[in-house]
Amino acid sequence: MAFTPFSPRQPVASARLPLTLMTLDDWALATVVGVDSEKYLQGQVTADVSQMTEHQHLLAAHCDPKGKMWSNLRIFRRQDGFALIERRSLRDAQLTELKKYAVFSKVTIAADDELVLLGVAGFQGARSLEKPVQRPS
């Protein structure tokens, strides 16, 4: 019989937790930039990226030509293109698939490991994100 030092607990809704900040190490960022980035992604993912605003993010899927889903991802506008948040374990294979037809468009598709992805949870989470974070001088 295995020894478990902690008593079993039921999952708790994040809205009942105190403010919590966590790293999202299992997730990775990729970018699609260039003058054709919107048009290119519009034909590659299931989300309607042409209707996305600067402050929106959408859940999307990337599928093969027969409609079978390769992966899901979160997409948002970033600088002169788009950023994709996807499972780190799938990112390299996903980028290979995304790049297959990119030679016909003016886009650059790349992994971005310079940023750290963080998650915020808890009943104070939304309020804590209302104020911009000040960087130390």
TrEMBL record:
Biological process according to GO: iron-sulfur cluster assembly; tRNA processing
Keywords linked to the UniProt accession: Cytoplasm, Folate-binding, tRNA processing
Entry annotated with the keyword Cell division: no
Domain of life: Bacteria
Recorded GO MF terms: folic acid binding
Record keyword tRNA processing present: yes
PANTHER family: TRANSFERASE CAF17, MITOCHONDRIAL-RELATED
Name assigned to this protein: tRNA-modifying protein ygfZ
Gene name, Swiss-Prot/TrEMBL: ygfZ_1
